[in-house]
């Protein structure tokens, strides 16, 4: 009988276990704490620091090393991840920290200008820099099926080196060497989200005083928004080609003609049109000014409004 050589020698040869990257995490608010737990669960050595020490101490039983101060935290790992309230808090927390030779990943929400300035600042401190924009709320962290992810921009080498570690809390999407691009993508998507929230608020306001169950409107709204969402691809194609009339199903003239219906309905329902009015004003302006070089008069849809927004 042939015996398994491992059994014969009674020696179980284990594949070498890849060492997990050590992580220092600065900031243990709702998001920082969620991030921390995923790295701990994945077996990464994790050093934590938080301005209010109790939040860091709470993670010690889960295996985190609690740094005695920020200098101790920064010294503990090459990879230093920052998740603080805003750019000013990053300034305050890291003032005087020795970042020479460190790889800094800043997940604090910033503007693109702040992110680029932060990248310059990191370079001047002798550190490499990646900026991140988190497209998730804390309960989505460490739950891949929730669909959250993080935009990264800045040092490509750093992103490639830490891709696996950064992918532990949420999927990663690298959007370029320009350190401001993660923040820009983040804000672009969230701006679209607020536009959607504005429309949803107006829709619920319209039925507020009627005998209509909001819960019956909700699935209709959700399905309608999902049905309309793919129109972003047509908008993108029109912007790329410069022809704003391609595939237009509802032209601007027709849509402008319909706007009084929306305003009158709002008035009749006792609802302020203030969320819709600025958009309608842009639609009317575009129609009045003609379609510019990218659209044949009256045949374009809403893409021309984008040109009115850009100074
Ligand atoms: N939570 C969310 O839904 C969003 C989802 C998308 C991404 N954001 C951004 O993530 C950053 C951190 O957000 P957070 O949820 O952790 O925020 P908080 O729970 O409010 O915790 C804030 C942490 O920042 C610390 N902090 C504030 N000011 C300072 C300062 N001057 N110096 C040092 N640390 C500071 C605060 O410390 P403490 O109050 O516990 O002492 C918290 O650790 C953020 O950019 C979101 O936009 C989250």
TrEMBL record:
It comes from Streptomyces sp. 900129855. Pfam families: NAD_binding_2 (PF03446), RedAm-like_C (PF21761). This is NAD(P)-binding domain-containing protein. Residues 179-295 form the NADPH-dependent reductive aminase-like C-terminal domain. Residues 23-171 form the 6-phosphogluconate dehydrogenase NADP-binding domain. It comes from the Bacteria. PANTHER family: CYTOKINE-LIKE NUCLEAR FACTOR N-PAC, OXIDOREDUCTASE GLYR1-RELATED. InterPro entries: 6PGD_dom2 (IPR013328), 6PGDH_NADP-bd (IPR006115), HIBADH-related_NP60_sf (IPR051265), NAD(P)-bd_dom_sf (IPR036291), RedAm-like_C (IPR048666).
């Amino acid at each position: 009988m042939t015996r398994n050589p491992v059994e014969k020698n009674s020696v179980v040869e284990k594949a070498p276990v890849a060492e997990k990257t050590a992580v220092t995490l600065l900031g243990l608010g709702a998001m920082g704490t969620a991030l921390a737990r995923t790295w701990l669960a994945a077996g990464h050595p994790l050093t934590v620091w938080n301005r209010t020490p109790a939040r860091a101490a709470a993670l010690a039983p889960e295996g985190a090393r609690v740094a005695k101060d920020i200098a101790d935290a920064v010294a503990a790992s090459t990879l230093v991840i920052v998740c603080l309230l805003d750019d000013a808090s990053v300034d305050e927390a890291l003032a005087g920290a020795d970042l020479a030779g460190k790889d800094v990943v800043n997940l604090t929400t910033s503007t693109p200008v702040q992110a680029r300035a932060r990248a310059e600042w990191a370079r001047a401190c002798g550190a490499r820099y990646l900026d991140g924009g988190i497209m998730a709320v804390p309960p989505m962290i460490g739950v891949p099926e929730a669909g959250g992810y993080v935009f990264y921009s800045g040092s490509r080498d750093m992103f490639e080196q830490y891709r696996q570690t950064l992918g532990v809390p949420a999927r990663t999407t690298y959007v370029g060497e320009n350190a401001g691009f993660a923040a820009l993508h983040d804000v672009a998507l969230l701006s679209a989200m607020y536009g959607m929230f504005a429309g949803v608020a107006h829709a619920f306001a319209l039925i507020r005083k009627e005998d209509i169950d909001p819960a019956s409107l909700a699935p209709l709204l959700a399905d309608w928004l999902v049905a309309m969402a793919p129109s972003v691809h047509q908008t993108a194609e029109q912007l790329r080609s410069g022809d704003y009339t391609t595939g237009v199903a509802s032209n601007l003239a027709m849509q402008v003609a319909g706007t009084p219906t929306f305003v009158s309905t709002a008035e009749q329902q006792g609802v302020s049109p203030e969320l819709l009015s600025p958009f309608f004003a842009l639609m009317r302006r575009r129609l009045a000014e003609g379609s510019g070089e990218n659209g044949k008069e009256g045949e374009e849809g809403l893409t021309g409004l984008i040109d009115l927004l850009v100074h």
